Amino acid sequence: MNQQRVSNTKGFLCMLGLSVLLFLLGIWAAWQIESGGHILTGMNNSVPWGFSLTLATFLLVAASGVLNVASLSSVFGKQDYKPLASFSCLLALALLAGGLFTLMLDLGRPGQVFLALTRFNWTSVFSINIVIYAVFFGLVGLYLLFTCFAPQSGGASVLGFVSFLWRLVMTTGSGCVFAVLAGRSAMHSALLLPLFIALSLSLGLAMYIISLHKAQFAAQRPFFATCTDELTGRMRTLLAVLVSITCYMVLALHLIGLNSPALREFERFALCTGGIFPTLLWGGFGLIGTAIPLILLLLPQFRACNCWLLAAAIGVTLGSLALMYVLVIAPQVYPVELFPGKIVTDAFYGQTASYSATALEWLVGLCGLGLAGIVMLLGIRIVPVLPASTLDNK
Amino acid sequence: MNTLLPSLSRRNFLRGAACSLLFAHGGVSGIGQALANIAQTRWGLVVDTRLCSAECAVCVNACAREHALQSYGRPSTDAQWIRKVRLTDKSTGLINHLPVMCQHCADAQCVRVCPTRASHRRADGLVLVNHHLCIGCRYCMMACPYKARGFVHEKVEKPAAHSPRGMGTVEGCTLCSHRIDAGRKPACVEACAKAGRGAMLFGNLNDPVDPIAKRVVAFDTTALRPELLTDPGVRYQGVNP
User: Fold this and answer.
1) How many domains does chain A have?
2) Which of B75, B88, B155 sits opposite A347 (nearest CB)?
3) pLDDT at position A25, please?
4) Distance from CA of B192 to the nearest CA of A (A)
5) Domain check: are B121 and B140 in the same one?
């Protein structure tokens, strides 16, 4: 198998420059918030977690999902995917680093983050997740080395299998951050965990496709030069299946909510009356993230050109971000029912809270994406993760 | 040995040892007794909503004064540890007014989720935040079923000496732990009594002869969101028709 490094092409430098710019802008924004306070964000005492945390969670879920390709080769024995496994590992590490960095910048006191590493609270999902993320870094890092330098060894298969199990643990941990919150009825659902896993699978594959295109652009090679038509065909089918599963999980979550008297009002809010949330759910996730990608992936007339696969992947990514926004923000905005059977007349408790992300929050969120881009681009420059051609494997 | 302790005779040594043993025994048993007392204490509040009116906000104002909480005219981000709430019963139309603050739960969700153990529960039942350990992740705010925690969104000017606050950390009602430690009542309870309302009763919920414990036993007091079984230390009287 012939793996390649990327040289300093114009495309590579252009992508790296863009990533560094995003990263630096994010650092600047975080500094502004650190010195001026969170008053510079749209967050408030009703909505303590805003867009930055949504993007951080989005990246963490995607980090687990991009390992799909590596898992397909080492766990499920799909040899076509083997040359793409190293890039899958690198991307997982890059996205995890980006997500965790954004999470850190979003803290009220990012400078004190070491306290979270030294004072574990084993009843806290946050603390447990720190361990899960650290193990993921170690496992996938080792797996990357094996896939690059000893792909045929038994170690690669063992690490592939363990990483596959661990990514499920990691996505479950990310989902648990929200699902364990008994006080937030709209989040407190066991269904959130399989939904997060399904979302990570579809979003991960979509982001893998986009990143592969980005890497090809950096290497100044044609789009999908590394993929055979057969392989892109399989990716289409797989992405369509995963998008359908995610859609099914979202439907199940809302159907159960609609049939629960305690959650019916919230469902009405999220699906119909909640302003931006129904728009994001129906338009963002339903239309852009599910319906259009499924059309692009399944109809034969869109199979001729790989650009439709890329378009579908972009749609799935944007739709997943919209869904994540609804899952994280809507339950915070919706009023808490302090006394069941009573109407609370108070701006803080009784009314829908307002939240809109400021430009600084966007920059902090995108900082993680910038860091993921830097890690990915430096990775493909230093480590031979991109296959010269998948045909080499045959 | 002699060079290190030149003046220590056998008699003096034995006398000193005896004194030390006596002191240690008395000290340890004294500390033990004090700890046992604390463990038996659970500070709490009962709010008689029938005595709480719409126009009165003395508890809110007293809290702000006591802890030097500034208002910038931005209600969604301003520090406010007590909020007055109006409840209307959907079926009977009964209206209640009541203050909502940290409920000092026995099974505090904020303590459970805090990654640095900055949120902690004292032996006497008070749920507090150690601002030195708080990293500002706001997970406790998400976990609190009563939205009783607040985040310090802006720089704190002139904080009260007994009430440390810091930008980027989470805070909430301490039930005036500094006053309780000095044998006084929380500022809101004191202000409510001074205003002639007497709607707030403070005391030890675990002491059967304490008036608060008697009232909890004698009357049908309600906890906020009782279905969550967090066992709040703040109870409300007169909410149910």
Assistant:
1) 1
2) B75
3) 97
4) 21
5) yes
